[in-house]
Known about the structure:
mainly alpha; two-stranded antiparallel ribbon; 68% helix
Amino acid sequence: MSTSLSSSRSCGASSRRFAGDPGMRFDTLLAADARYSLALRIPPEARWRRRLAATFAHSGDSWFWLLGLGWVWVSGMPGARSWALAVAAAIGLLAVAVLALKRVVRRARPEGEWGRIYRATDPHSFPSGHAARAFLLAVLVTGWGPSGLAPMLWMWAPLVGLARVALGVHFLSDIVAGAALGLLGGMVAVLAYPG
């Protein structure tokens, strides 16, 4: 019997393992995720960096984007209403998917003080709705326009996710899962409704 096989058996039968690598325990990945996420946190004394991170973190709020889409709707520019409606519908459908996954996974947010409103209204962190929304918007603007805005949104989207980790309301894996969900949702929307 090899050393790695015997050491993996000594960990106990109740440990969750990945099928591709029996020696890799799920709790080991979660611990690494928590450790790397904590390393990215901005300390409270770094006030200007925390303010900048808070600006990026809040810029992914759904109310902010829905308010902006409402303004686009009211402006009445040609094609703007159907574009705003399609983006708002995609945001709404993505929110339903994110909330359903959060209710199933039920991963608690990291310990911390920042983001009390998020902690009070949504105590679950996986996947990140902000990261999902940010990447969804980047895909939608790439597919539906305005094309000049797309490069800015592709730079902005990862910053929203990293800001959420830096402020302690998400783990890195929450951001990765949210980004993947947003990318998938955006691609499905663009393929289903080519604009």
